[in-house]
Design goal:
44% strand; Immunoglobulin-like; 143 residues
């Protein structure tokens, strides 16, 4: 009985090693992966909006902005190639804008119903976007 099992095992291993490899013969590379998203944080205060970092490379962006003012604000990220809006963001709350930015200058503005006169307008933040960041091809264990 032992001899039969051993022979069957050897025959199975030989058969498996004789089979050609499975799968595609030629690897076909798909389009390159996009750059990893840049995370930018922003804060709204009673005097204005700030973002950090304020200079990034082009590609996917995740802007997380917190309202530290006493009133609700709507946030607008705009430039030549994009216009994204979120809000209103209540005091002590946060919101997120997810977009893909190309090279250029962008402003991040916060507006509220309170700003009735130009003297009450909040100072906007400026975001400078440079050349597109490299792809995420070499990043392992990333989406």
């Amino acid at each position: 009985m032992r001899g039969t099992r051993g022979a069957a095992l050897i025959a199975g291993i030989a058969l498996l090693s004789a089979l050609p490899g499975c799968g595609q013969k030629d690897f076909v590379r798909g389009p390159p992966r996009p750059p990893l998203p840049s995370q930018i944080t922003g804060v709204i205060t009673a005097t204005g909006v700030t973002v950090s970092p304020d200079r990034i490379g082009g590609g996917p962006v995740l802007l997380i902005i917190s309202n530290q003012d006493e009133v609700s604000h709507t946030v607008i990220l705009e430039g030549e190639q994009a216009r994204e809006q979120v809000g209103p963001i209540n005091p002590d709350d946060a919101a997120t804008i997810t977009t893909d930015l190309t090279q250029g200058r962008y402003t991040v503005r916060a507006g509220s119903d309170r700003a009735a006169s130009p003297g009450e307008q909040l100072e906007p933040a400026e975001l400078v976007v440079g050349q597109r960041r490299p792809t995420g091809e070499e990043e392992i264990l990333r989406p």
